[in-house]
Amino acid sequence: MKNMKLRTHLLLLNGLLIANSGQAADFAAGQEAYSIGDYETALAEWAPLAEQGHAGSQFGLGSLYANGWGVPLDDAKALEWYQRAANQGHAEAQYSIGVMYQNGWGVEQSDAEALKWIQQAADGGFPAAHRTLGDMYAGGFGVTPDPVQACKWFATGEALGDSESSFDRSELEMNMQAADIATATELARSWLDDFRTRHPDYDWPDE
Q1: Measured between alpha carbons, how far is 45 from 36 in angstroms, rounded to an integer?
Q2: Does residue 151 register a pLDDT over 70?
Q3: Which of 19, 69, 74, 123 could form a disulfide with 39 if both were Cys (CB 3.0 to 4.6 A apart)?
Q4: From CA 177, how far away is CA 175, in angstroms rounded?
Q5: 3 state SS for the chain
Q6: How many Cβ atoms sit within 10 Å of the Cβ of residue 201?
């Protein structure tokens, strides 16, 4: 099992409600610019929306500041914009805050604080957060090492479409007892059933 404290994925999600068609067009224009590396245009499109409270744009600004794309790298500003989006339930923003606490980027390093934010992101259905929780439980980062919980989170991450979770689950299960694997599988099934109930419109892979 790889003892990795972090795997970051700064990809922009589309699963947010857009307040109106004008915002939708501007946000999409920012996404298109971001995707081709035109960060200055992305900034220009997203900044007004972010100030208006648009969570996707707030997350986008956080990503720009976190990486120094189109703006000077600034962890404090990245955290500020991630926080604004996270407070609106933006799962990837919550995950990004957790990553910052894992690494001590602009904040005091804290596995406990990282766990809190990454758990929120996992509850919101962000696949990479499930894999990272699996890593944390496997390696004992902020929690007592627990291979059953690690296996559960890898299984839910796999179900949500994260291919690396599938690899990590297989690797972990090679060193687990059959009964523990069965327990983890049942925990994952229960979590997924509850998630389907809470998020009936979630965009499941291959559905």
Answers
A1: 14
A2: yes
A3: 69
A4: 7
A5: CCCCCCCCCCCCCCCCCCCCHHHHHHHHHHHHHHHCCCHHHHHHHHHHHHHCCCHHHHHHHHHHHHHCCCCCCCHHHHHHHHHHHHCCCCHHHHHHHHHHHHHCCCCCCCHHHHHHHHHHHHHCCCHHHHHHHHHHHHHCCCCCCCHHHHHHHHHHHHHCCCHHHHHHHHHHHCCCCHHHHHHHHHHHHHHHHHHHHHCCCCCCCCC
A6: 5
In the block, residue with structure tokens 């991630």: 82
| pLDDT given for residue 20 in this prediction | 62
Question: Could you read off the pLDDT of 91-115 as tens digits, one per residue?
Answer: 999 999 999 999 999 999 999 999 9
For 178, the token pair is: 């059959």
Contacts of 85 (CB under 8 A, 6+ apart): 55, 56, 58, 59, 62, 93
Closest CA to 99 of 6, 4, 2: 6
- CATH for 21-124 is 1.25.40.10
Retrieve residue 119's tokens: 């758990």
Nearest-5° Cα angle at 135, 130 to 140? 125
Domain boundaries, the chain: 21-124, 126-200
Predicted structure pTM score:
0.87
Report the C-alpha gap between 187 and 133 in whole angstroms.
Answer: 14
